[in-house]
Amino acid sequence: MKINKITFYDLTQNRCIETWFLRNTKIYSRQPQSEPLLDYTRYYDISVNCPELMGKYDKFNTHAQFHEAYLKELFRAKNINYSKKNLVMY
After folding, report:
1. Are 61 and 9 in contact (CB under 8 A)?
2. Is the peptide bond before 32 cis (omega within 30 degrees of 0)?
3. Residue 79 and residue 73: Cα distance in Å, rounded?
4. Which of 3, 46, 66, 75 is a Cys-bridge partner for 57, taking CB atoms 3.0 to 4.6 Å apart?
5. How far from chain centre, in Å, is Cα 74?
6. 71 and 20 Cβ atoms separated by less than 8 Å
């Protein structure tokens, strides 16, 4: 009889899925020019600091709302559209 081993990993997600996406350095604009991305970068520069540790910008009710807005602005700067509606997780 063959016994398969299963390995479990403890994975802690401090914020939301958008926070993970913010760690992708390929989408980051090194010199943002447009608002509000410029304001977001001045508040917290994710190219230098870990997005998991990013706080909540004053104009948002939750961290998740801010992180999603930050991600959308990064995508907008690259002419990419982002929507949770079509997000598929495997």
Report:
1. no
2. no
3. 10
4. 66
5. 9
6. no
